[in-house]
């Protein structure tokens, strides 16, 4: 452990991002304090019947082989697609293994985080937390599964049962009902597969399903009581729904629905920053584009690039635990002064919805940590970026999982991955196989 840097760093949130940030920052000699609003660590992965974004039977939609921190693998006894209790136990074990509880303040919400400038009288500048404690740097790892996002509809006269997926816990309330599930992403697929087992009919609304061929392909791979339809545009009082058709026209359904579940994601939420802070455009700080435009490489705030950092914000970044580990290593390089913040503005941009772009993104973050980022190609999408063995493995397994979701959307979590490391000294490819 390096003891040479005594900067105080505040971390907001003791979920997967806050834990890895605390561990790596402390290893490098920083004085870390993690502020956790609840009385438990684990963030998103803490299940509750009344709050949080988990439902009872939730399993991960990516295999454990691409989720684990680099120095702490998941137990070999766990299935590739774990339930949420397994992930929470993993995070608890990680915190215990590296003695992180000593730097975590539970039941300590951050109500305000304000930047104060240094003064000529020798007073230090930094981030004032709750008007009491001053830190040289702030890492925001509060997650983005707190404030539900709802679609903008041209009309919504439906008075029946309607919830966001954040409120969903089990399929039993939907037995023998006709249920509309809005959202074509991973959460939507999970709920479709589960609710179809008890519902009379599931209508699944997604933008891509406006295309008849896409809708037919999806329908052929799901239970017979699932009907894919285009993007939801409105709801009538009698339970009919309006969707976008193949020619971009509005189509009103013949049948009706009894209940609606919105699996439409979440808004970004940083309630501890005031609108007057200037960190995000006024009244738009929870919009993805506002957050994206305020950051360099989805990580360093443009206004305070050497002291304000955000973990885990990009959407659909596979292996997000690992992504946040790479992000933290890049943060450390900036905090230690081995990377100049002046060069951050010239770094290449990455899509907000990452998917496969997450893998070269992690290579760039590692280059920042090593101080070799100037050599990273700006046209990384047109050239082949050499991926280290571990990142290449994650990309291969991710690609295979995406293919399995497309071919067997209601059964892909039954598959098991096995990593075959030939122990060749690190020079060769890490091999893997699927056991079905």
From TrEMBL:
InterPro entries: FAD/NAD-bd_sf (IPR036188), Flavin_mOase (IPR000960), Flavin_mOase-like (IPR020946), FMO-like (IPR050346)
Pfam assignment, any one: FMO-like
Keywords: FAD, Flavoprotein, NADP, Oxidoreductase
The keyword Oxidoreductase belongs to this UniProt entry's keyword annotation: yes
One GO molecular-function entry: flavin adenine dinucleotide binding
Keyword hit for NADP: yes
Family: Belongs to the FMO family.
PANTHER family in alphabetical order: DIMETHYLANILINE MONOOXYGENASE
Protein name: Flavin-containing monooxygenase
Organism: Vitrella brassicaformis (strain CCMP3155)
